[in-house]
Specification:
The protein is α+β, with helices and mostly antiparallel strands and 360 residues long. The protein folds into three domains: 201 residues, no CATH class; 89 residues, no CATH class; 42 residues, no CATH class. Helix content is 45%, strand content 14%. It is built from twelve helices and ten strands. Strand 5 and strand 6 form a beta hairpin.
Length: 360
């Protein structure tokens, strides 16, 4: 469930391609190439594998044979050219590092696999684009298949704690009332069968229509277990499930924050900051590498003038959007009235901002 929430957010707020040369035709072509090679789906699956396994492998498919796979792959037109077939996701369960440097910590490839075994086939590491959002120490990398901590592993102790509380609460409810009979136990145990019969009769008639008959030496009592804090305890343990993913309670569990004027917006803002950090720190380098190979394959060269930005995670309400549009309209009117900008500048601004709501 947690990966689904994260992936849904990343997928809904994809990216916007831009050109430093304002070449709209080139931007449209690049967007078409991104759709053609399903970059969004590749990133979607890579993030899912990172959550499940702690690492994701995107294989750059060049149609290479077994011998060619062992060699490095360079961003060169002669190497890529017409050979490029697309990207493939390989589950980490089928991979294992073939060679890595464990002797020279000062070198950049220290504890970085130079090649991987994939079902017995050796593939050079440059033919993979990896994603690791929760890395571990270098000495622990072999234990994690040179990946990182999976979200499932981080969630495990919290889930187990919650399951324990969930299972114990019904038991407490069942033992809510403890019924006791005060009697002469030494005398009763002289005839255990008669004592058991006495308890069975008392239990069978224990209802609103029954009659409780007590001897002159007996006393009936009940002990009730307080249950006032059970709901709070269960809720606290359930909310702790949000800690590993830093996801707001209202997003994961659907529980609205309690208190006057509480809306959970602060938690949502922090969560968006976390997602933005993942996008810039981990996902952006992946997308840039994938775009470089696409540019060489489709356009014959790298396109340094093409950049991209991630779309905002915060969605504006209609009221907020109308207020922004009103402020922009007032600003443009004042600038045009004072001759700071021309009507052509205003028209160009409107063309560049189709979501301004000022164009009919």
């Amino acid at each position: 469930m947690l990966p689904r929430f994260l992936l849904t957010r990343l997928r809904a707020n994809w990216l916007t391609v831009k050109s430093s040369s304002d070449d709209e035709d080139l931007v449209n072509e690049v967007e078409g190439v991104i759709v053609k090679y399903r970059l969004q789906d590749m990133i979607h699956q890579a993030v899912l594998h990172d959550c499940l396994f702690g690492i994701a492998h995107i294989y750059i498919d060049m149609g290479a044979d077994e011998n060619e796979m062992r060699n490095p792959l360079f961003k060169d037109r002669a190497k890529v050219g017409d050979k490029f077939r697309g990207f493939r996701i390989i589950e980490p369960i089928w991979t294992y590092p073939a060679m890595y440097n464990t002797l020279r910590p000062w070198e950049p490839d220290f504890y970085q696999p130079s090649s991987w075994f994939v079902m017995g086939q050796t593939i050079h590491a440059s033919r993979f684009i990896d994603l690791v959002t929760r890395p571990v120490s270098q000495i622990l990398k072999p234990a994690y298949n040179f990946g990182g901590l999976s979200l499932i592993q981080l969630m495990e102790p919290y889930v187990k704690a919650w399951e324990t509380i969930r299972d114990e609460i019904p038991k407490i409810v069942k033992a809510f009332t403890l019924t006791g009979l005060k009697t002469d136990m030494e005398k009763r145990m002289e005839n255990p069968g008669e004592f058991k019969r006495r308890i069975d009769i008392m239990t069978n008639y224990r209802n609103n229509r029954g009659v409780l008959a007590l001897d002159t030496e007996e006393a009936f009592f009940q002990i009730n277990t307080p249950m006032t804090d059970l709901e709070k305890i269960a809720s606290n343990y359930q909310e702790q499930l949000c800690i590993p993913s830093r996801m707001p309670v209202i997003k994961l569990l659907g529980n609205a924050p309690a208190g006057l004027n509480a809306n959970g917006q602060g938690e949502i803002d922090v969560w968006h900051e976390t997602i933005s950090g993942i996008q810039e720190r981990n996902i952006r380098p992946m997308i840039q590498q994938m775009l470089d190979y696409l540019f060489i394959a489709e356009f014959g060269q790298l396109l340094p003038e093409i950049t991209f930005t991630f779309n905002p995670l915060d969605e504006l309400t209609e009221k907020e959007m109308s207020e922004i549009n009103l402020n922009n309209a007032s600003m443009l009117a004042n600038l045009a009235t004072s001759s700071c900008i021309s009507t052509m500048d205003v028209a160009q601004w409107l063309i560049n901002n189709p979501k301004s709501g000022l164009l009919s």
